[in-house]
Design brief:
Elements lengths: L2 E3 L4 H6 L9 E6 L3 H10 L5 E4 L2 E4 L4 H5 L2 H17 L1 H15 L5 H8 L10 E5 L2
């Protein structure tokens, strides 16, 4: 998995030889995210990743720690695909409705993401940018 700081411009990336393949989708990683920290509080977990559109928000982990856990990355990328499949606004509505009805752990979108945790082939479709 490729990890590049997203403060770099395309020209700088080319100079470094880090231009991602055109078929890969860019995913941003935000470290120390208040959104992810709120999710920690809501689901009573110590460390979470929270995916919103094509950005993965981390509560306490670093991008390197997160990316070294392929199952965790595959789980969050399943959410990226869910957003892409259903559309941003529609998926947020469906996800929240499902959470209110069945709770976080029984939410069908979370069940689907957990089922995709072993699908590490999904990792090849993306590259990651982060803020330091």
């Amino acid at each position: 998995m490729e990890l590049v700081p997203y403060t770099l411009k395309d020209a700088t990336l080319k100079e470094l030889g880090k231009t991602p393949a055109p078929h890969k989708t860019r995913i941003r990683i935000r470290q120390n995210s208040w959104i992810a920290k709120m999710a920690c509080w809501c689901i009573k977990e110590k460390d979470v990743a929270f995916t919103l559109f094509r950005t993965i928000h981390l509560s306490h982990s670093t991008p390197r720690v997160f990316l070294n856990n392929q199952r965790w990355v595959a789980h969050e990328l399943a959410h990226v695909r869910q957003f892409a499949t259903y559309g941003n606004v529609k998926f947020i509505f469906m996800y929240l409705s499902e959470s209110f009805r069945n709770g976080y752990h029984n939410n069908k979108w979370e069940v689907e993401a957990r089922a995709n945790e072993d699908s590490v082939d999904i990792l090849q479709d993306y590259y990651f940018e982060y803020t330091s």
